[in-house]
Recover the amino acids of this structure.
């Protein structure tokens, strides 16, 4: 199919909708697998919060990855999508009792526990069910990440994880409990991280903690370093595959694993961001004194990242090759923050043009809402489009 025919096909679908390019997703999965398969003790759990659409879940499951969940709903969706329970990890600072029950009933691989009271509740519920729940303790490593403040999680001022100073006490508590089995440590420092130095800093912190554990004769089977690898939002077409080689090489080089230890990862964005685009049509053009607005039919209900984090997604006009002009691309929602970007260059825009907002596969559709009583967006894969 030529590019022009493909664009014609894309224009036929009612907008706004998410379009998932399965070829890019597969190339991304192959790139991750190529790195992970160099080590027989590395395991990837896809962070399903990034995107829970069956279109992306199927190839991810086929790639053999597990799942990182943060809610009972995510556990349900993962099981329904065919992910084996023994590959599911479950994190989150506020797990409700029913969610813990669901994890225990399904014998998930591991709970990433974020506080002492949570540990106690898991132990009690497991006891009631006559079971033993595997747990890792999520330790807050107090390592900063060069990313947006709202998506930094590894600083002691963040709500996540157990303070390093309490690590030994909590391990001792866990070891004394009959219905939890202490398996290891979990970390996650933030998201959209492009500086490998941040991950190196995490490795150094884990090495320090492991030295302290050795001194106390405590052995740990699992180290889970979370996710966080960022993607190129500026040049998604030139650079569709994230720096997986560098990322896994950091851990291979800097993290001193002990004999027999497993290293687990929870990548979300890096796996799905670049395969997804939000497709939207131009409803109206509006010229104010200093601005030209392209008013499109998608809003922050479909993609909230620009409004919430000031994130920039590359935007292209698929149906024009007119001269470049400067526009603000805005949505229909009754809030000024419903702006996808300001002062960007697009090929001359007119009503009816099809606009693609790129790198929207992660935290796009999964964060969509029905504000203003809008309908949730539909989605299509490249295979759906090709089939017509
Ligand atoms: N593990 C844990 C414990 C997490 O909290 C997260 C993301 C991940 C793994 C996956 O991180 P990733 O590989 O995707 O960076 N909505 C925000 C991102 C929030 C990330 C939350 N936690 C955004 O649109 O940028």
């Amino acid at each position: 199919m030529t590019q022009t025919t493909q664009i014609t096909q894309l224009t036929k679908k009612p907008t706004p909708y998410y379009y998932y390019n399965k070829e890019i997703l597969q190339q991304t999965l192959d790139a991750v697998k190529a790195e992970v398969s160099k080590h027989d003790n590395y395991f990837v759990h896809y962070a399903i919060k990034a995107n829970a659409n069956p279109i992306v879940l199927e190839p991810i499951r086929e790639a053999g990855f597990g799942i990182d969940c943060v809610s009972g709903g995510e556990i349900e969706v993962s099981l329904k999508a065919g992910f084996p329970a023994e590959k599911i990890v479950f994190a989150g600072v506020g797990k409700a009792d029913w969610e813990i029950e669901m994890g225990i009933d399904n014998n998930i691989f591991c709970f990433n526990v974020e506080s002492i009271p949570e540990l106690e509740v898991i132990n009690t519920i497991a006891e009631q069910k006559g079971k033993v729940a595997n747990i890792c303790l999520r330790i807050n490593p107090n390592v900063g990440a060069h990313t947006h403040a709202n998506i930094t999680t590894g600083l002691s001022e963040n709500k996540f994880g157990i303070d390093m100073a309490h690590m030994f006490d909590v391990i001792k508590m866990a070891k004394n409990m009959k219905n939890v089995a202490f398996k290891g440590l979990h970390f996650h420092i933030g998201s959209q991280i492009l500086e490998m130095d941040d991950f190196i800093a995490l490795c150094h912190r884990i090495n320090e903690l492991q030295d302290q554990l050795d001194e106390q004769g405590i052995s740990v089977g699992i180290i889970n370093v979370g996710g966080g690898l960022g993607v190129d939002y500026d040049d998604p077409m030139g650079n569709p595959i994230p720096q997986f080689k560098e990322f896994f090489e950091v851990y291979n080089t800097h993290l001193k694993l002990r004999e027999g230890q497993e290293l687990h990862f929870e990548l979300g964005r890096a796996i799905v961001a670049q395969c997804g685009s939000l497709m939207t049509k131009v409803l109206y053009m509006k010229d104010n004194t200093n601005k030209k607005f392209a008013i499109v039919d998608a809003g922050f209900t479909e993609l909230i990242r620009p409004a919430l984090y000031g994130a920039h997604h590359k935007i292209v006009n698929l149906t024009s090759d007119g001269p470049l002009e400067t526009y603000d691309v805005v949505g229909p929602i009754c809030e000024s923050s419903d702006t996808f970007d300001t002062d960007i260059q697009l090929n001359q825009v007119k009503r009816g043009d099809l606009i693609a907002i790129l790198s929207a596969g992660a935290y796009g559709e999964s964060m969509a809402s029905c504000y203003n009583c809008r309908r949730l967006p539909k989605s299509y894969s490249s295979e759906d489009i090709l089939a017509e």
Observations:
- The chain has a mean pLDDT of 95.
- DSSP finds twelve helices and 17 strands in the chain.
